[in-house]
């Protein structure tokens, strides 16, 4: 039995080492470990029964001694079988399957007022009739943030969630490689695993076949132009699309986010005239998270009445409703100048 325990400990150590290289035990190795645990507990029970033998008149009977003897013989046979089987367990480790989700870091401390849009996106995801969902809205409104929140959902119904940042310059090869990495392939020149084949048709076919075997969710962030999913190697059976527009924050949520970035709690505005100037500046941010965050940070901590007044003056040309990105840029420039 001691030999078997040593073999088990060796295998457990081997598995621990393998985890550092993203490898996991084969099903055979797992079954062997379970069988060893079982025999260890049977042997422990046997030892107790053996020690108790003689404590009672029944315990020392010929019949119970015979039963114990049989149990000992069976245990020994199983121990012997497991010791021999251990030598045939090759390989013991195989590359672990890629994790279902690779969490994306979200930069904002908390996501304000996003639950409504998030649940709208979630319900579109539940709807199999809408295989393609577009999330759109002004720059800096929170599209990437919402997409990250969807990516990071703990109980996703998808067995593989793939995140790809597409960016301005659409590079199909990069999109294919990002997808392939999530399927367990290595990037060319990095890692020791298999890489995607060089020929475009082979790459497309490899991705098509690997993805069609999975219930996957592909999240494409920063998409600026039409992307032909079939040319990438992403299977999808219908052209039905649906969309979700990310709304601006309402004045209450804007104020919450603005105060958070200034570093002041709701109840820490002792000077009410400063508070009303700050509210007016907050309004100029037009409910756009990026401007609320940058202007809020620029106006953080210890700002005087005069400074708030100056800020409001600097932003006076900005209308109540943000019309276009030029106004967003004015707000960002204002924050930049205050750095
Ligand atoms: N609801 C929110 N609550 C708090 N912070 C937010 C929220 N939405 C976005 N932000 C923050 O605002 C900034 C801009 O958000 P994000 O990058 O998601 O916008 P975007 O719509 O993807 O912008 P772009 O069009 O430039 O890609 C980020 O710092 C993000 O953390
Ligand atoms: Mg973005």
TrEMBL record:
In its keyword annotation, does this UniProt entry include DNA repair? no
The alphabetized list of GO BP terms reads: defense response
The entry's keywords: ATP-binding, Nucleotide-binding, Plant defense
Q: Which Pfam families match?
A: NB-ARC (PF00931)
> Where's the NB-ARC domain?
121-246
Superkingdom is: Eukaryota
What the entry lists under Gene3D superfamilies is as follows: Helical domain of apoptotic protease-activating factors, P-loop containing nucleotide triphosphate hydrolases
Q: Which GO terms describe its molecular function?
A: ADP binding; ATP binding
Which protein are we looking at?
NB-ARC domain-containing protein
Taxonomic classification, please? Eukaryota, Viridiplantae, Streptophyta, Embryophyta, Tracheophyta
